[in-house]
Design a protein that fits this description.
single chain; alpha+beta; Arc Repressor Mutant, subunit A; Beta-Lactamase; six-stranded antiparallel β-sheet; two-stranded antiparallel sheet; 8 strands; DNA binding
Length: 254
């Protein structure tokens, strides 16, 4: 009887604690709070806070602040589906212009927990197009160039959790390994843009860049994908410049 009562109360108690953490984060500014500060403000033990933060982060109620160990409540003015629709409508003309300029396909990607989600794509005028993803397609975060651009902006602990969670799925993408993914992350951080080839689509190479909030959290990414022969290093750098330019144009309209 005692065990049953304890089990019945565990769910609501956990929910109350999770909401307490969320409300505490919402009451503070965008610089966020550390686990130590959350423990002091809520009276909860650090292991409990870590467990609850992991769940809140996975559900996108909470996010890490840049590459720090601080946490902030996710602030969304619109419901997620409305937000995505709004973003697509703003991005479309700029993506279309970019696709026409470079000749190749352009993709708009967001993070959805441990995956990337394609919101939109525009096809360029070049006769051979690489259409490795499509609207509403999900795949492990980092196997595509836009997803890699998003992944590389996250803190190291979150990256490790995502890679570990997706480890069994990575082999389906050209035999990508955890070690190769970490190397791609390092390369992306060094360059300032991602270059990913021959994983999601054989014979293809993509260049991706992410737009981040003022706190350093990746909001969404754009990528350009083409056949490998069209992507020498010099053109990769030029395409990255054009993508950054397009991201800035979109940001001004949001």
């Amino acid at each position: 009887m005692t065990t049953a009562n304890t089990d019945n109360s565990a769910g609501p108690r956990t929910l109350r604690r999770g909401l307490h953490i969320l409300q505490t984060l919402q009451a503070h500014d965008e610089n966020g709070l550390s686990v130590t500060e959350l423990s002091r403000l809520t009276g909860l033990q650090r292991p409990t806070i870590y467990r609850l933060l992991a769940a809140l982060t996975e559900c996108d109620f909470v996010q890490t602040v840049g590459k720090t160990r601080r946490y902030a409540a996710t602030k969304q003015v619109l419901a997620p589906t409305e937000t995505e629709h709004h973003l697509v409508e703003i991005a479309k003309p700029f993506m279309r212009e970019l696709a026409f300029k470079v000749g190749d396909a352009v993709f708009l990607i967001i993070r959805e927990n441990n995956n990337s989600l394609t919101l939109w794509r525009e096809i360029g005028p070049y006769p051979v197009q690489i259409l490795g993803t499509y609207v509403n397609k999900r795949q492990p975060l980092g196997v595509g160039s836009a997803g890699m651009a998003l992944l590389a902006q996250l803190d190291d602990d979150t990256i490790s959790q995502i890679i570990e969670s997706n480890s069994n799925a990575l082999d389906h993408y050209g035999g990508m390994t955890q070690r190769e993914m970490r190397q791609l992350i390092d390369n992306t951080r060094t360059r300032g843009y991602s270059v990913v080839g021959n994983y999601a689509v054989r014979g293809a190479l993509g260049v991706g860049c992410a737009l981040c909030s003022s706190q350093g959290y990746p909001l969404f990414a754009l990528s350009v994908t083409a056949i490998t022969e069209r992507m020498p290093a010099r053109r990769q750098k030029e395409i990255a410049r054009l993508i950054h330019q397009t991201l800035e144009q979109i940001a001004e309209k949001i």
